[in-house]
Design brief:
2 copies of one chain form a homodimer. The first copy, chain A, is an alpha/beta fold and about 300 residues long. Chain A has helices at about 25-40, 50-60, 70-75, 90-95, 115-120, 170-180, 190-215, 220-230, 230-240, 245-255, 255-280, 280-300; strands at about 15-20, 40-50, 65-70, 80-85, 105-110, 130, 135, 155-160, 185. Chain A is about 50% helix and about 15% strand. In chain A, the strands form 2 sheets. A 6-stranded parallel beta sheet of chain A has the order 3-2-1-4-5-6. A 3-stranded mixed beta sheet of chain A has the order 7-8-9, covered by helices on one side. The longest helix of chain A has 28 residues, at about 190-215. Bound molecules: NADP nicotinamide-adenine-dinucleotide phosphate (NAP) (2 copies). Chains A, B: Pfam families: PDH_C, PDH_N.
């Protein structure tokens, strides 16, 4: 089923009566904005955020019907709750809200790692609350409630990693939510998800953060020149590296095994290429460059590039 | 001195009488096009390229006044010759043209490595011929004579790496050529140049080529998902990785020492970050992410991002 266009669907009944967003930075506020623009996602949107400054911003921006500073009160009476905080905060947030989740309520999230999310949420899940982990593959370099916009998820994938013996009806409702946000929804197990994002997103970020530091450590004179002549290669890396500190710290710590595995594979491969450079093995080098071009073509054919 | 605008300067005398380009792919053909559009770079532009197919294309595109298949004849009577071939081809090309370079002629180039260029050209330099190595920091992912355009160098840096005891007047003329192409001209020694481009361009490309291969080696099922969900991180990497095979093979082989040094530094740094991930050292990770953001800000302030 293709995603639905983002425009008022007065005819369709809202999916949820009371949708509560725990965390309304870039991702949470974008969900709230999409819900407000469409009208067919939730009758009422409740927003909770931790810090008084952010609460004040959320009130001023006005994308939520109710702004609630107490997470326990925020989730009360909600038939859907979506966690939109850094993945390292899940266990603590869950301890606060779990006793207040209504029976039958759907608990979902948008976290960038999924094994850790199931690990941190499942043990605290009250009976009758239905867990549906999700990860929208959309984002920008910016964060906070000002950074969100209603069309952020349009045309992007959203991966659901349903839990074993979960409720199929709850998975369907979260699928419908993301389709109404404009996304293409895919399902896979949490382990596969974590490997895929480790190679397509987490390792590239680790590399980008690292190479910036490597450049920064060069002697003063060279560093000035590095900044001055940063060619497109380095520029692309540093665009990546401008992302949020807390979010990326939590992602690295919570996708540790897959990330370290992908880094180990990458390091082996980069050493093989370095060895070919050292010993002047032109054919090996050409082969590696050609493989890169092949993958690139694959991306273009899929229109993801 | 700011770069001159790219428009006819009928008033200014051409810098050269007969400018010969050895190699007219992306870079060489862009110089030819800029010379033709401005009129104040050379009275006559001579183009040489190696393969009959490319020669036919160059004739059809019509950006050169003379198209010459024999490199020795191409350089005859030229007061400036610019090598625009992959850096691995320099020694062989120089052997063919050196006996035919006119005394007083300026020999320059556009190669992406500079230590190797001086190594390969200087021993063969006939007396009276003046060498001025140069590297325009501009390019696209595309190659060949069709890919060039007159404005490619506008607003970009061009680095000159003058040789010891070289002719200052020749350096001034090549500086003027690049300014008329719209570039900002900087000078540094070849060794510093090679280190700077190793970190800002060559290592990022080595990493990009490598990570594509790493992804390609993953089990069939995960690879499909990798291609499907390639998030922005991986997309930026693969954009880099779509570049020309011969050019990059030659760059890696001809900037070996600086490239291996930068890779070794980067690998140490990535292992330090990996170790922090393994042992859950949040502060170390945060520090690395923050450093990346600082460099990024540096780039933005310099308007290079
Ligand atoms: N950004 C992306 O590209 C992207 C893409 C896909 C998924 N995600 C995932 O989406 C989630 C949110 O990311 P985001 O980009 O929306 O982040 P963000 O813009 O920085 O917003 C984070 C939100 O979480 C709250 N928060 C932060 N730390 C907290 C803590 N320790 N305890 C409780 N609340 C906390 C913040 O509240 P205060 O401001 O009030 O402190 C804010 O409301 C993360 O799990 C991330 O992995 C992000
Ligand atoms: N592309 C960039 O981003 C960029 C940026 C700055 C500097 N450079 C440097 O500019 C130079 C040219 O790059 P380019 O992008 O213009 O390459 P290109 O578009 O692939 O053109 C290469 C030219 O060199 C000729 N050539 C290739 N191999 C040769 C050989 N073994 N012997 C003699 N001639 C040969 C080709 O002739 P045939 O087609 O007739 O074989 C063609 O005329 C390289 O040294 C590169 O390092 C490139």
């Amino acid at each position: 089923m293709p995603p639905e266009p983002l425009s008022g669907h007065a005819g369709d009944a809202p999916l949820f009566n009371r949708l509560c967003l725990i965390g309304v930075g870039l991702i949470g506020s974008s969900i709230a904005r999409a819900a407000r623009e469409r009208g067919d996602i939730a009758r009422t949107v409740v927003a909770h955020t931790r810090r008084p400054e952010t609460l004040a911003k959320v009130r001023a921006l006005g994308f939520a019907d109710v702004v609630e500073e107490d997470p326990a009160r925020a989730v009360e009476g909600a038939d859907a709750v979506i966690l939109c905080v850094p993945v390292g905060a899940y266990a603590g947030v869950m301890a606060q809200i779990a006793p207040h989740l209504a029976p039958g309520c759907i608990l979902s999230d948008v976290g960038s790692t999924k094994g850790s999310v199931i690990r941190d949420l499942l043990p605290q899940l009250p009976p009758g609350v239905r867990l549906v982990p999700a990860h929208p593959m959309a984002g920008t370099e910016h964060s906070g409630p000002e950074a969100g916009f209603a069309t952020l998820f349009e045309g992007r994938y959203c991966i659901l990693t349903p839990v074993p013996n979960g409720d199929p009806a709850a998975v369907e409702k979260i699928t419908a939510l993301w389709r109404r946000c404009g996304s293409m929804v895919e399902r896979m197990d949490a382990e596969t998800h974590d490997k895929v994002v480790a190679i397509v997103s987490h390792l590239p970020h680790l590399i980008a953060f690292t190479i910036c530091g490597t450049a920064d450590d060069l002697a003063e004179e060279t560093r000035e020149a590095v900044l001055k002549f940063a060619a497109s290669g380095f520029r692309d890396f540093t665009r990546i590296a401008s992302s949020d500190v807390d979010m990326w710290r939590d992602i690295f710590l919570n996708n540790r095994d897959a990330l370290l595995e992908m880094l180990a594979r990458f390091t082996e491969d980069s050493h093989a290429l370095a060895r070919a450079v050292r010993y002047g093995q032109a054919e090996f080098i050409e082969d590696r460059i050609r493989r890169g071009r092949r993958i690139r073509r694959g991306l273009i054919e899929r229109k993801q590039a």
